[in-house]
Design brief:
Helix content is 58%, strand content 3%. By secondary structure, it is mainly alpha-helical.
Length: 478
């Protein structure tokens, strides 16, 4: 979220303690400071934890339409007939008679058999031959729609060779800018498409025609360039839109008629993304309790809809004690939901950057640091160190820094000063400001290594320059 309020917790603490605050330059990061005068006594550990809510609406790397249909045949006849009825009276004037004929034949075949026609060139059924010939004639005229439809039929066939050719045709149509093909290829081929002019023109054309997911694509495009009014406008249009696609486009209508349970799930995730984009704008501009509550409700709905970034922003807001929305115990559920998702997978069925694996790692880190710090409601997290170990193996530098300092001081785990200093060095070399701060402390205080005040002050200065809130105060005292 681009402008959720900054905050920090300031609980009274005895040594050893953790003090954490969120730097505005690192959205989603917690900066941790541990004083470990008594490194072996975990019962005396208290946290000064603060989390700044300063997430940014991220540029979505992938543009997608719908998950590949599971081909539940029940109800397809009715859906396709309804789609055909919607488009027959509103169909635009045909610009390619061959493609128009092919689509009509495909739809007729599907309505009668409840199956898509097999594009196998060895098939001798005259009906199938007519479909293939019409599509080929259209493809000879470089029709992107024909490439996409032929690719769709081939990809859904049972033959591996045809499926590979189908995927190539869909990608070719996508590379030429066909909106539905570009979005479907992102799902079929796991291909990420940048927010380029070609995609934007195609998405905006579809958005103006009433395609709901294209309206959401338009919203995230404008949001990525800071054009928040347009982003909010398109998000509002999408959320008010009850039509999945453009009823005047027979290809789009037919494609939507193929949708099953997976397609429904994907469309719900798109809607959740629209709520997240709108919540970002409204939270930034909220001037009253009612406006903030409305924005927060959208954020909660987006989180429940599977948007990981929404869940992280929601958790950070609940952890903030400078806001009337501060309920740290309520941050646990969204964080556990994100952290509990399978590792290595995008959180959504489509490749939204707001559902990326990095958000799972961030959620695990927040669970660990809040459990170690004794944040109310986080007792049920259990042992946080396996999470820190996993994050360290994934080269997640904030976890390296926290685990390193705990090892240096024996906070919650047996002391392993040499390994702890090694982890702090690795994270500090990667630019982690918490690691620089703690490593500077280690040099100043002789923790795990010989005292070197010059090196310690230099590291603390670097941490202060990077925004660690405790570094400047420490410099003044040394």
């Amino acid at each position: 979220m681009s402008s959720m309020p900054n905050s920090s917790r300031a609980n009274e603490a005895r040594a050893p303690s953790i003090a954490a605050s969120q730097g505005e330059d690192m959205p989603g990061r917690a900066e941790i400071h541990l004083d470990a005068a008594d490194s072996g006594n975990v019962d005396r550990l208290r946290m000064k934890l603060g989390v700044v809510v300063a997430g940014g609406v991220l540029v979505i790397a992938a543009a997608m339409l719908t998950a590949w249909p599971s081909m539940h045949k029940k109800g397809f006849l009715h859906a396709s007939t309804k789609a055909a009825g919607q488009t027959s009276s509103n169909a635009p004037e045909a610009t390619d008679a061959h493609f128009d004929k092919a689509l009509r034949l495909v739809r007729t075949f599907f309505d009668r058999t409840h199956e898509l026609p097999d594009p196998n060139p060895l098939a001798t059924n005259p009906e199938l031959v007519d479909i293939r010939n019409a599509l080929q004639e259209s493809m000879n005229r470089n029709s992107g729609e024909a490439k996409y439809l032929m690719g769709l039929l081939a990809y859904l066939s049972r033959e591996r060779a045809l499926q590979q050719k189908g995927a190539a045709l869909i990608q070719a149509a996508a590379d030429e800018g066909l909106f539905i093909a570009r979005l479907d290829s992102a799902i079929l081929l796991k291909k990420s498409y940048p927010l380029d002019d070609l995609h934007f023109r195609a998405a905006l054309k579809a958005a103006n025609a009433g395609v709901k997911v294209a309206q959401i694509e338009a919203a995230r495009y404008f949001a990525s360039f800071g054009r928040k009014d347009q982003a909010a406008e398109w998000a509002i249009k999408a959320l008010a839109n009850t039509h999945v696609g453009d009823p005047s486009d027979p290809l789009f209508a037919f494609r939507m008629a193929l949708g099953g349970a997976t397609t429904s799930t994907v469309l719900k995730q798109y809607e959740a993304l629209a709520k997240y984009l709108l919540a970002a704008v409204r939270m930034e501009r909220a001037n009253t309790v009612e406006q903030r509550s409305q924005a927060l409700a959208l954020l909660e709905e987006a989180s429940l809809g599977g948007i990981r970034q929404a869940g992280l922003d929601l958790a950070r807001m609940k952890l903030s004690d400078k806001s009337e929305r501060a309920h740290p115990e309520q941050a646990l559920a969204p964080l556990q939901r994100i952290a509990g998702s399978p590792p290595g997978r995008n959180g959504c069925l489509v490749h939204f950057e707001e559902c990326a694996e990095s958000h799972r790692q961030e959620a695990m880190y927040l669970l660990a640091v809040n459990q170690i710090g004794g944040t109310p409601g986080f007792d049920s997290v259990g042992n946080p160190f396996p999470m820190l170990e996993e994050l360290t193996s994934l080269q997640f530098n904030p976890a390296k820094a926290l685990l390193g300092w705990c090892l240096v001081n024996g906070i919650g785990i047996p002391r392993e000063a040499r390994r702890g200093i090694g982890l702090l060095n690795e994270a500090a070399a990667a630019g982690d400001k918490d690691a620089k701060y703690w490593l500077g402390r280690a040099f100043l205080e002789g923790k795990g290594q010989a005292v070197d005040k010059d090196k310690g002050r230099a590291l603390i200065k670097e941490a202060a320059d990077l925004g660690n809130p405790n570094a400047a105060a420490l410099l003044d005292s040394h």
